Amino acid sequence: MKKLLVLFLLLSVGLWAELEIDLESGALFSGYNDVGIPGDVGTKFSLTEDLSTEVEPFLRARVNYHFNPRHHVSLLYAPLQVEATGKIEEDVLYQGETFAANTELTSIYKFNSYRLTYRYDFVRKAQLTFGMGFTAKIRDAYITLEDADKKAEKTNVGFVPIINFRLDWRFRPQLALIFEGDALAAPQGRAEDVALGLQYQINQNLAVRGGYRLLEGGADNDEVYTFSLFHYASLGLSYRF
């Protein structure tokens, strides 16, 4: 009986399975980006107010596997890196180093994200689809601060479980409003990566979209104090095989 069930599942997946490549690019704008390391005694400063950052291009890549047909699995690579420069009007204690006031500083903020997601569509109709699931996120992050003489760096690699959701409203045969993201809040910190966009279906396989993405989160503990907000003006392209 178990063998028959496994065979049925394999056949059903094989009869309805689609692979999709999704690319997203555009402009990345820094909102607030507040840092204090160590979190208990480090000087708190802002990479966007005390220092200044420029608008940066970005690229995100996702591979989606849709099967049976309410089940979806995806892999996401979402790199993020911005540079901040300027002077701070007070001494800065950062990661065991003291940076003198009014010296030229450079900071690199990196927060690369690797995510594996499973989502199930609870609602699947001609015009409306809604699903929820779980994302296993690996963050590869560091924040550096340096002047002409020295450099200090805080690195962090860790695992974060997040809730995933997606809402598709196809209000025209070729047009859909898409609201999707990963989000979770806990005493240890919070993380939100949420996007709202308009998608145009060019043909059965190819779709383009434009929209806005918000990335926000951080943590406050003895080791680190860091909270950041980023805005994305994005264009996307997806192709189903």
Individual helix count: 1
Number of domains in the coordinates? 1
Helix content: under 10%
**Largest sheet geometry:** 10 strands, antiparallel, barrel
Beta percentage is: over 45%
Structural class call reads mainly beta
Radius of gyration from CA coordinates: 21 Å
> H/E order of the elements?
HEEEEEEEEEEEEEEE
CATH fold assignment = Lipocalin
Our measurement of the CA-to-CA distance between the termini, rounded to an integer number of angstroms, reads 33 Å
CATH architecture: Beta Barrel
State mean pLDDT (0 to 100 scale).
Answer: 93
Global geometry? elongated
CATH class: Mainly Beta
Uncertain parts:
4-15
Main sheet strand line-up: 1-4-5-9-10-11-12-13-14-15
The count of β-strands is 15
Description:
With 241 residues, the chain is mainly beta. It has one domain: Lipocalin (Beta Barrel), CATH 2.40.128.90. The protein contains one helix and 15 strands; from the N terminus they run H-E-E-E-E-E-E-E-E-E-E-E-E-E-E-E. The strands form two sheets. A ten-stranded antiparallel beta barrel has the order 1-4-5-9-10-11-12-13-14-15. A two-stranded antiparallel sheet has the order 7-8. A hairpin with a 2-residue loop joins strand 7 and strand 8. About 5% of the residues have low confidence.
